[in-house]
Amino acid sequence: MLNRIVLMGRLTANPELKSTTTGKSVTSFSIAVERNYNKSGEERKVDFFNVVCWNYTAEFVCRYFAKGNMIALEGKLQSRTYQANDGSTRYVTEIVADTVSFTGERVQKANSNTKESSSTTSEQPPLPSQPDFENMPIDDDLPF
Length: 144
Description:
There is one protein chain. By secondary structure, the protein is mainly β. The protein is built from 1 helix and 8 strands. The longest helix is centred in the middle third of the chain and has 10 residues, at about 55-65.
């Protein structure tokens, strides 16, 4: 059987780290993922997905990601049920992420007292002034 999902989107809220009664770290958040297509004259549609991360992955997300940040994740799709306070049965489908990555988007800190805010730039790192190679003289007497 195969149950893998890969998504890239933006966090809709700041993730909050929680602990279970056994001491495991957990966080849940949602991401907004734009669809690849749109009808002409309409805005691009967005899908929202609920995500759960456990242990080190949860700690990593809460430490380095904030609302609006782009995130790439890989995990599995999982469904579960639970009894609500009113006695009704609720069904939940969520992504349990086991791999979370930065997307290459540049993130700058506004100041040390606030969470990271994202901003994208198109700046490239400067190229080195001296190349790591030198031109060789052309020799027509090649041995092959």
